[in-house]
Amino acid sequence: MPLHLQKLRTLYDTIKDYHDAKGRQLSLIFMKLPNKNEYPDYYEVIKQPIHMEKIASILKNNGYENLKIINGEVSKYKKIKKIKKNSNTSKKYPVK
Fold first, then answer.
1. Which domains does the chain have, with CATH numbers?
2. Who contacts 57 (Cβ-Cβ below 8 Å, separation ≥6)?
3. Which 3 state secondary structure label does DSSP give 25?
4. Residue 25 β-bridge partners
5. Residue 12, number of CB atoms within 10 A of its CB
6. Maximum distance among all alpha carbons in the chain?
7. Which secondary-structure segment (H or E) carries 81?
8. CA gyration radius for the chain?
């Protein structure tokens, strides 16, 4: 396996397995895309959404040519913080 793919796999596993101080695995809500009808604002902010299972599939098939590509995918999740920060979505998008 090329070195960049090993690094990407390590990055993916680190993100997927991360637990916060309360012991919650934060990646679980990102494993699949949210329902468009229930969370339309998610799709307004994230124009080309991708979920963790899709990223894992792309990694498995050696689909990322370099580290910059997955960085673009990961940065989409940063936009979710903007949704939470700029609106009252803590009730709408609870972390379980």
1. 3-86 (1.20.920.10)
2. 63
3. strand
4. 19
5. 20
6. 44
7. helix 67-86
8. 14
Evaluate if residue 14 carries a pLDDT over 90: yes
Q: Are 58 and 50 in contact (CB under 8 A)?
A: no
* CA–CA gap between residue 56 and residue 62 (Å, rounded): 10
Extract the tokens encoding 68: 């910059």
Higher-pLDDT residue of 74, 15: 15
Q: Is 27 helix (H, G, I), strand (E, B) or coil?
A: helix
Residue 96 confidence (pLDDT): 46
**Pair of tokens at residue 31:** 């494993």
* Among 54, 82, 83, 84, CA closest to 70: 54
Average pLDDT, the chain: 79
Residue 14 tokens, joined: 């680190």
Residue whose token pair is 């799709």 = 43
